[in-house]
Amino acid sequence: MPRPTPTFADELRDALTRAIRGVDERQLARATEALVERYRAVAPAGAPILASPAHVLAYAAYRMPATHAALARVLTDVAASGFEPTSQVDLGGGTGAAAWAAAAAFPTLERISVLDQVEEALRLGRTLAADAPAAALRSARFDRAVAGRWPEGRVDLVTVSYVLSELDASEQEALVTDAMARGRVVVVAEPGTPDGYARVLRVRDAFRGAGWTLLGPCPHAADCPLAQPDWCHFAARVNRSAEHRRLKGADLSYEDEKYSWVAAAEPDVVASQTNSARILRHPLKRKGFVEFQVCRPDGSAGREVVSKKSGERYRAARDAEWGGLLPG
Ligand SMILES: C[S@@+](CC[C@H](N)C(=O)[O-])C[C@H]1O[C@@H](n2cnc3c(N)ncnc32)[C@H](O)[C@@H]1O
Question: Contact, 290 vs 283, CB < 8 A?
Answer without folding.
Answer: yes
